[in-house]
Amino acid sequence: MKKTILTTLILSALIIGCKDTINKNNETSETTEVFQNQKEKITKKSEDQAALYNNTWVNEIEMDNGDKWEANLETNEGVEEMLKLVESSNPKSVQDYHSLALKLNEEKNYVVKECTMEGSSHDNLHVFLHPLIEKISALRKVSSKEEGAKITGGIKENLESYYDYFK
Q1: Alpha-carbon distances of 112 from 24, 28, 117, 130, rounded to whole Å
Q2: CA–CA distance, 117 with 134 (Å, rounded to integer)
Q3: Of 154, 102, 116, which is closest to residue 132 (Cα–Cα)?
Q4: I need a labelling partner for 21 at 20 to 30 A (CA). Which of 6, 83, 107, 126 fits?
């Protein structure tokens, strides 16, 4: 009888010990997976933020056989108006940056709506516009004046670079 009880206790201890080891291994795997997911999200967020402040799109855009692309009048006017809005703005608060973003968004919508460009010039306009759209969207969501100033600087640089690629 004592042998049976002793054997049962030893087997129970082993089973419980094994389950604890399995649970600890599962917890470690889950924790590692959570940290990897967080790291990936942080890396993606850092890359997205870098795109907001920099103009990496200039590495993707092409010239028209060494010349600037011909843009339609409305696109040129819209870009010029957006640049004027940025240059004449003097934001003093987060709300001012949000207001600037709304005005820029209206002009950007005008450019998109009135665009009659086709082919390669149109494709390259999208290379220019895509990061600008993201920056304007981010400006609408800023939560500090510092963040607003950084994004506005990126927008201004984006708009000024337009004239390097389009006429």
Answers
A1: 55, 50, 10, 11
A2: 21
A3: 154
A4: 6
Which residue's entry shows tokens 């149109």? Answer: 122
**What is the DSSP annotation of 69-100?**
BP--HHHHHHHHHHHHHHHH----SHHHHHHH
* Under 8 Å between Cβ of 48 and 141: no
Task: Tell me the pLDDT of the chain (167 aa) as tens digits.
Answer: 666 665 665 656 556 655 555 555 556 556 556 556 555 655 555 555 556 667 789 899 999 999 999 999 999 999 999 999 999 999 999 999 999 999 999 999 999 999 999 999 999 999 999 999 999 999 999 999 999 999 999 999 999 999 999 99
Coil/strand/helix, residue 146: helix
| Beta-carbon contacts of residue 97 (< 8 Å; ≥ 6 apart) | 91, 139, 142, 145, 148, 151, 152
CB-based contacts of 153, cutoff 8 Å, min separation 6: 53
Element of type H or E holding 53: helix 2-53
C-alpha gyration radius of the chain: 28
